[in-house]
Q: What sequence folds into this?
């Protein structure tokens, strides 16, 4: 039978003590000589704010639409396209609640390219200002030529005109939106195929010609009378022409009411 030596017992006890200490350290997560530190609260907060370009375009677009909604001179039948010319994100170095304010840099209406000013605030403090161009386009159905037209050609002749949607943003001199407006209207000059017909391109068909004998309908506040006169120029219905009174020889101007009849106001 083997005998247990005191040295062996001491060794076993020492190993058992070391095992107990190691297990206790593993459970508490504490390592000898290592000190755990938690991150400070300020390290968890963002130090910058990124404003995406989509947000910038959306803010400016909404502002332009609000302005157009209050534009009393805007045709309610137009289709509107708004192009905000901004294509980059904006980095703000101040964190907080972000607000936006947009305004125009001029009194011009939103027609074509217009410069706006976008002010960006963080916690009510202005931190960034941007100048942003907005291109606003207006589209509408208007009368256009279906083929090339000669001067003095009736606009309602078959195949002469048609209705198409066109960009009318910068269109001057007026335009026609229905074929009914072209009754007794002719081209005042040659017009190319596909052109928008403006008031500058059209004129009433003459129903009175220079030298024609006409009836002058003279009206004033308390009376009206008729006199025979002579037309001194051509004109269509609604146009104003010069006429000469056949009795007095006096030359006056009047509006053509119908073929052969000219109204003179307040002689």
A:
């Amino acid at each position: 039978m083997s005998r247990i030596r005191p040295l062996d017992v001491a060794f076993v006890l020492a190993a058992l003590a070391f095992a107990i200490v190691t297990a206790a350290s593993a459970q508490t997560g504490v390592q000898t000589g290592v000190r755990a530190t938690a991150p400070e609260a300020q390290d968890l907060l963002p130090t910058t704010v990124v404003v995406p370009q989509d947000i910038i375009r959306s803010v400016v677009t909404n502002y332009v639409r609000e302005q157009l909604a209050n534009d009393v001179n805007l045709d309610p039948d137009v289709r509107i396209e708004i192009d905000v010319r901004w294509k980059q994100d904006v980095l703000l170095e101040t964190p907080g609640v972000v607000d936006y304010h947009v305004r125009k840099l001029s009194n011009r209406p939103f027609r074509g390219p217009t410069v706006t000013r976008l002010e960006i605030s963080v916690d009510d403090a202005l931190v960034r200002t941007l100048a942003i161009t907005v291109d606003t386009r207006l589209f509408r159905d208007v009368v256009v030529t279906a083929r090339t037209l000669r001067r003095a050609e009736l606009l309602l002749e078959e195949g002469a005109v048609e209705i198409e949607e066109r960009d009318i943003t910068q269109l001057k001199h007026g335009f026609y939106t229905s074929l009914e407006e072209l009754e007794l209207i002719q081209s005042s000059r040659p017009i190319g195929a596909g052109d928008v017909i403006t008031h500058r391109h059209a004129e009433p068909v003459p129903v009175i010609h220079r030298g024609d004998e006409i009836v002058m309908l003279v009206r004033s506040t308390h009376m009206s009378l008729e006199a025979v006169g002579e037309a001194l120029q051509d004109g269509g219905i609604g146009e104003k022409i010069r006429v000469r009174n056949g009795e007095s020889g006096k030359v006056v101007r009047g509006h053509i009411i119908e073929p052969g009849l000219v109204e003179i106001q307040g002689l």
Observations:
- Confidence is low (pLDDT under 50) at residues 28-42.
- The longest strand covers residues 125-145.
